[in-house]
Write a structure and sequence with these properties.
Length: 603
Amino acid sequence: MLSVLRVHLPSDIPIVGCELTPYVLLRRPDKTATTDDVPESAPLDGHFLRYKWYRIQSDRKVAVCSVHPSEQATLQCLGCVKSKIPVAKSYHCSPKCFSDAWQHHRVLHDRAASAVNENGNEEEELFGRFNSSGSGAINTSLSGSASSASLTNGSAPLYPAAVTQRSGGETWFEVGRCKTYTPSADDIGHVLKFECVVVDAETKLPVGHGNTILTSRVIPAPSPTPRRLISVSGVDVIGHLDSDGRISSSGNFTVLSYNILSDVYATSETYSYCPSWALSWPYRRQNLLREIVGYRADIVCLQEVQSDHYEEFFAPELDKHGYQALYKRKTNEVYNGNTHTIDGCATFFRRDRFSHVKKYEVEFNKAAQSLTEAVVPSAQRKTALNRLVKDNVALIVVLEAKFSNQGADNLGKRQLLCVANTHVSVHHDLKDVKLWQVLTLLKGLEKIATSADIPMLVCGDFNSVPGSAPHSLLAMGKVDSLHPDLVADPLGILRPHSKLTHQLPLVSAYSSFARLGVGLGLEQQRRRMDPGTNEPLFTNCTRDFLGTLDYIFYTADSLTVESLLELLDEESLRKDTALPSPEWSSDHIALLAEFRCKSRQRR
């Protein structure tokens, strides 16, 4: 007979908005073990599995600590309440917890104060307070849950909610009838109970004892700290959003670049400092989606997007928010894992702002084949390919703006835009390969530039710090022949050094923080910049590395930077040791720039 051997949950802490799918190990009638589901529609030997989820609500009101979500809160910051900060962030488990967190907690108060304008009206930040189920007030009302008209969780049909049991000051509400359950705001602070029982297909009665498991208390999903859009002329733009929260100037557009950390790389061995629940993909994908959607960018360039996550999650979810999607998966000549988990570059754009004109795919493996055949002696080609073939790719998209650029010189003209999205080789000892990949991409973009009068953006994770040869090539248009990165060139692919140039007038968007004058917010941002390179101090923050690897470059003769998403400071991130963390779900930070197209004459 069918029987249940074991039931357990993959995550130790349930989080609002993140699916819970228990691991259920079964023994078939033939004594073999399986984790396959046995639904009522396809019984096995006359039996099937029935699942139920319950919320256990105590008569005693419970809140959870905002710093240690597995702990019950014992005190609340009244300053947060007065400042209308999301109430979930106001709870702490002990006076020591509150004292230790104060240096970072006071930032919430400072932000709330700065978000009040002269008339005393609160203004929303670009990446503002999520009024979603993850960060609102804790709902401790029993009546609110009991009055729920129906249950919609999972794929089971709707059915009336019911109080199933009340004992010892606890009430059990049935909240779901399928294997997977997604906690809601009503579940915050409460324990959930999962029940799995074998049922006779004929009598519909349980057979034997049911298997149950209790979760810890459900916690709200931590919301990333709001990040403001800062004008590079020194004026905050947070009062100039349209009804959708986007910048109101019709000729401006925003571009986001973000390495979201592929799930296949997000291992507990690499990121042991991150709680397991915060490292799990069901949690991270929801947190990343909230963050990305919250920026409301017109163009979104993501790196390290697994092909299965692109198809099953990001493309359909961002489609709901008005984005069209394009994707280029890495090649798999080196990678030997599941092809569905190979990551790649994904570019999204708002359908109401842009239309798709053309797509180019750059496979550096193919370029490596051509290079070795042209310049490497046949006896050394295998060695050369082993060094050059790293599966990296770039996705180049040509878009046409649907908005007017305004100005007499541009009336009636199509406004095209070329956006390159790439992820360069990560290998630290292959500096020649990194530089060659960047040079290959730039030479491809030069060909596009000669065929069309078109502004360009080059976004991505270049795995190259400011001052490195790839960065010098991008930012300066050339690499000094005495640059130390050129020493390691065993294949001779970088010689002669005079070829390490390009003609695109590229400038790093975030260098605007260092180059422009004094203004509100700029001094704070300047302290987060490296004065020697005019780049952010970091865009990647792990326990073992702190530095800048990500950039948004633009052609300065055709585009101008209007504003930039504020940078994060190391101190606020280090409160969670490093990235990723419960608040930020990647080891990189997102970069976002607002641009305006110039009226210009081609040189």
